[in-house]
Amino acid sequence: MERLLSLNDQYWAWVVIPLIVLTSLLLLVRTRGVQFRLLPQMLRGLREDPGEGAEGRRVSPFQAFAISSAARVGTGNIVGVSTAIAVGGPGAVFWMWAMAILIAAAAFAESTLAQVYKERTPEGFKGGPAYYMSRGLGLPWLGAVFSVILIFTYPFSFNMVQANTLTGAVNDSLDGLGVATGDRTSLVTGVVLAAVTAAVVFGGLRRIAHFAQLAVPAMAVVYLALGTAIVALNAEALPGVIADIFNSAFGIEQFSGAALGTVIIQGVRRGMFSNEGGMGSAPNAGAAATVSHPAKQGLTQAFGVYFDTLFICTISAFIILTTDPVYGDAEVNLVTRGVDAALGGWALQVMALILVLFTFTSVIGNYFYGESSVRFLRDRPWSVAALRVAVVGLVLLGSVASLDTVWSIADVTMGLMATVNLVAVLALSGVTVKVLRDYDRQRAAGLDPVFTRDSVPGLKGLQVWEPEPEPAVRAHEK
Fold first, then answer.
1. Which option is the CATH number for 2-444: 1.20.210.10, 3.40.50.720, 1.20.1740.10, 3.40.350.10?
2. Number of alpha carbons in the 13 Å side-chain half-sphere of residue 200
3. Which of 335, 352, 333, 296 is nearest to 476 (CA)?
4. On the chain, which terminus has fewer CB atoms closer than 10 Å, C or N?
């Protein structure tokens, strides 16, 4: 296993990180900085009304954003940030920020492509990287490879890790209340989590979307409020914290013996694990949205990267760095330690609740990604039912298992998954640019952009986007 981890570190350093940087820089130039110049449209797109479709089965842009955020906003925002800082020092935070801003271009591209090549089903739209690999590149075998990697990464490995984290949070909370914990409490927690997970995932996409729409904003607001209170109590430490972040980022000061390369890799890898930009996961949710133009959902999903890293992860980092952390021990949750140091034992109970919500919504979001992949491989009721049963069982197993090996394997498959997706996004960057130009052209004409198959000549493999019988172009609200 140590050999596997060493090879994985090298793979990330020499393949994944250069590829994501290259892809994002290319898209930054070709889209003329889409993640900066269209920030107001990112926010506006969250409010778009999807209207009513067949049997009312439509997912709004905000619901799609919430589904992807449910998977994004999880233990990566707490435990992932803690690990990055413990191993890489404060400088890892800078590289998380820098990569989030850069990766937002890749996030825009992958979700725009997911919209362009999505398909219509009786349950709503479906799509994602497997579909644009199959329809856009004409390589269905590559889509199948990607789907298999995603299933092993998200609904299987990551959900086991999330379940284990949730069990640990519950046990920590009970220990703080003086209640003895052990294997039995872990099993009870696992059974409850598995039961609730089953109730949601067997309810289908609409139940997942409604749950995420309610849970994600609520838990984010509570966590941001808690973190803001801690930072306010330690405001005098903030200037020094920011100085440490920038000094450590460029090797001016070293913390916990972390070399500059370690600082960068930890920041990029944990940031990418948290915000999922370029990973190829969020487009599965983005494709489900009903929007008038693919670029709209691309912008909405790009904002998800900002929301995750620049807001949630930053609060976690400031909680840690303003409460005098001890570097070098990746096994310690520095966020929880910081909350305890700043607010006392009662706040640990709030943190336990937040971790429970974070991990559960991640389980649901991860499952949704798996369902999208299973439907691409074999869209049959029995295959989806088999996935649901497997996910519920693995959630229960993850609650009581030791997951060092599972987490290590998931880290490897995450890198492979990102590689396959980024190669496809890079190959289809021309399509992304053409679709964005159509969006920009319509906005410049004062219109609310509407996309059809005829909007960009030469596109092949489109399954939807038929022109309306009587196109109704709405006035663009400036």
1. 1.20.1740.10
2. 23
3. 296
4. C
- The reported pLDDT for the residue numbered 129 is 96
339, 348 contact by CB (below 8 A): yes
133-141: long-range contacts, CB 8 A cutoff, minimum separation 24: 133/420, 133/424, 134/376, 134/461, 135/460, 135/461, 135/462, 135/463, 136/424, 136/428, 136/431, 136/461, 137/424, 137/427, 137/428, 138/461
Torsion sign over Cα 130, 131, 132, 133: positive
Residue 415: name the closest of 16, 5, 78 by CA: 16
Name the helix (H) or strand (E) containing 21. Answer: helix 17-30
The closest alpha carbon to 98, from 256, 306, 337, belongs to 306
Torsion angle defined by CA atoms of residues 404, 410, 415 and 420, in that order, rounded to the nearest 10 degrees: 170
In this prediction, residue 342 has a pLDDT band, given cuts at 50, 70 and 90, of confident
The gap from C-alpha 61 to its chain's centroid, in whole angstroms, comes to: 16
For 423, the token pair is 């190669």
CB 86 within 8 A of CB 256: yes
Q: 239-243, 245-249, 416-420: lowest mean pLDDT where?
A: 245-249
In the chain, what percentage of residues exceed pLDDT 90?
32
Name the token pair of 298. Answer: 């691309």
Phi, psi (degrees; rounded to nearest 5) at 447: -105, 155
Instruction: State how far Cα 394 lies from the chain centre.
Output: 21
- Find the largest Cα–Cα distance for the chain: 67
- Rounded CA separation 137/461 (Å): 9
DSSP annotation of 447 reads B
**DSSP letters for 206-275:** HHHHHHHHHHHHHHHHHHHHHHHHHHHHTGGGHHHHHHHHHHHHTTSS-STT--HHHHHHHHHHHHHHHH
| Residues 6 or more apart whose Cβ sits within 8 Å of residue 399 | 163, 164, 166, 167, 186, 187, 189, 190, 193, 194
Which residues are CB-neighbours of 447 under 8 A, at least 6 positions away? 473, 474, 475, 476
- What is the tens place of the pLDDT at every residue in 88-110? 788 888 888 988 899 999 999 99
Placement of tokens 């915000």 in the chain = 275
The structure tokens listed for 317 are: 């980092």
Tell me, what amino acid is at 416?
Answer: L
